[in-house]
Amino acid sequence: MSRRFSRAESSSDLLAFLDRGHSANTENRWTFEIAWEVANKVGGIYTVIRSKAFVSTEELGDQYCLIGPYKEASARTEVEACEFPNNGPLYGAVSAMRNQGYKVHCGRWLVDGNPQIILFDVGSAAWKMDGYKQELWESSNVGIPHLDVESNDAVILGYTIATFIAEFKRCAEQYSHDNEYGPPRIVAHFHEWQAGVGLIALRTRHVDVATVFTTHATLLGRYLCAGNTDFYNNLDKFPVDEEAGKRQIYHRYCLERAATHLCHVFTTVSEITGYESEHLLKRKPDIITPNGLNVKKFSAIHEFQNLHAMAKEKIHEFTRGHFYGHFNFDLEKTLYMFIAGRYEFSNKGADIFIESLARLNHLLKSHNPDVTVVAFLIFPAKTNNFNVESLRGHAVTKQLRETLNTIQQQIGKRMYDTCLKGHLPDGGEILTKEDMVKIKRCLYALQRDGNPPVTTHNVVDDWNDPVLESVRRCHLFNTKYDRVKIVFHPEFLNSTNPLFGLDYEEFVRGCHLGVFPSYYEPWGYTPAECTVMGIPSVTTNLSGFGCFMQEHIADPKSYGIYIVDRRHVGLEESVQQLSKFMFEFCKLNRRQRIIQRNRTERLSDLLDWRNLGIYYRQARIKALQTVYPDYVDESESYLRRAADFNYPRPVSAPPSPSSSRHTTPAPSLHGSDDEQDSVDSEEELEELKKANSHD
């Protein structure tokens, strides 16, 4: 019997625990979260920590504190400096550190949730580096090369944080004794190998606190994948020490592996990264902690379809300018696809994306010639400046628009004056010869000799650039006969960009399909961001996001999540599957795409930190119970249920469409293309009535 699905029962979530730290305060439970990217934007971990800050503070209140390195450039704009209450253990620990000569910055991070934050100036403790490195060698036999600046900084920060947490434990015990509280229970959660040095120091110094270590991607895994190896099918065969040594990262690998084995609870962000860690780091994760998003930031309730239309119009403006002179396609039948992320050509799947676009080009020419696909590749690369042709295109189209607007106003004035005199306007009088000359001059300016450029910038060493090399090999040169057009934009988008004039979030909203056929993607924030904005996406069964969706959704494809198999089949089969998915998407009409976006947006609750934060809580509770056997958490049975939720095949829940017998939304029987919320077809309406009668 089919059953209606509503957002309210989507899954277990953190709502029952969001008491602003009341229960944590009652239990005298403290949580520190340590990462190199706290208030320091370097990569994806910054997004994880920042987006999770809101639910962390809602759950733990001022019993929660973030710790990281002090980077003046970012801290100046992201951190509000203030001191902790002078009667609390945090104030005592910070004061003790300052008395020992450490430079400590504390305050509030200016993000959602406004969490407490402590930043240590690595430079102020640099004079202790040799002593720290000697202690590391004597306690764990890990030596750090003198010239590896990043590892040196990680050692300084790690031992500084270990010293601070030991001081905090002493202050908290004294504070609890003075105020007749129970013993303090402290959890220190470390992210990635740079912060993991602090965990090693805590454990080798025998500081009695619970520790959690999360790896978002293994060091060795990134290096091995970059070497064009059959990574996942040979994971159990790699001589890990030898491979790390060959790549001159053996000391970093040792730090990562030591943190993995010394922590009380080890977590990874996805099942696929857990499998990788089991073979490369030699420990299976205790808990999988998927990455979420603060969905409130992205959700535009009842408006996301309108936001898509408005953002799409801005992309239309770019398209008109970029393809001037070859603008022989209908924008109403043009689909925008994109890939974005770090410029890791093979790891991010840009290689098979371009190859699949070439095949899609052939399929559209043969079977669907009225549809045009504009594919954007957004990877930051070294450039000299904007491409002159790109800038010229936007200049001439702007001139044409302004000229026509002026003529339009003049025509309106002439018509008004003529009608006032009691005469019907005559065509020759309304559009003057002077107006025709102006229009012709603009039209001649729109002529161009060559094809529209493939890239918006002048790329440094473009002959060896992997994207441009693949584009040349596949002959995707933006000719007027091509149904697939390529735009390589080698820098991240922002609202000050003179070509697009919109930021990344707006750009994603305006596109029709995100394509991320990654070979190595421990989680995958790009398809997750698409999902919470209601944009269908392509991912793979080698990305954490793809595996998560396969596990929790009965039929991901029907929700606009296309999962390419890159694990169990060869490269050729993966390319064929991707090109087939994109061609199927191109065959959808406008109404079907609207229905699919409704379904995709429905999944946003699944990726909300209010749901996924429960796994982080579970990891902390497990670590606490390991160190403090007397600690009892009343929510244990609830936590066990958190992993059991599953999204069924689509069943109508207003304003989303009802369940379809086909993976692709059925075409409208009425042929309507209006942007409105409705069921998929008359057939599905009957199915919905039957389902409701049994509810």
Automatic annotation (TrEMBL):
Q: Where is the composition biased (Acidic residues)?
A: 674-686
GO annotations of cellular component type: cytoplasm
* Positions of region (Disordered): 646-695
Q: Which InterPro entries match?
A: Glycogen_synth
Q: What GO molecular function terms would the record report?
A: alpha-1,4-glucan glucosyltransferase (UDP-glucose donor) activity
Per UniProt, the keywords (alphabetical) are: Glycogen biosynthesis, Glycosyltransferase, Phosphoprotein, Transferase
Residue ranges with Low complexity bias: 658-668
Which EC class is the enzyme in? Answer: transferase
- GO BP term (any one): glycogen biosynthetic process
EC number of this enzyme = 2.4.1.11
What is one Pfam family matched by this protein?
Glycogen_syn
The answer to whether the entry has keyword Phosphoprotein is: yes
What is its pathway? Glycan biosynthesis; glycogen biosynthesis
Q: Which reaction does it catalyse?
A: [(1->4)-alpha-D-glucosyl](n) + UDP-alpha-D-glucose = [(1->4)-alpha-D-glucosyl](n+1) + UDP + H(+)
Hey, which family's this protein in?
Belongs to the glycosyltransferase 3 family.
Q: What does this protein do?
A: Transfers the glycosyl residue from UDP-Glc to the non-reducing end of alpha-1,4-glucan.
Name of the protein this chain belongs to: Glycogen [starch] synthase
The organism encoding this protein is Aedes aegypti
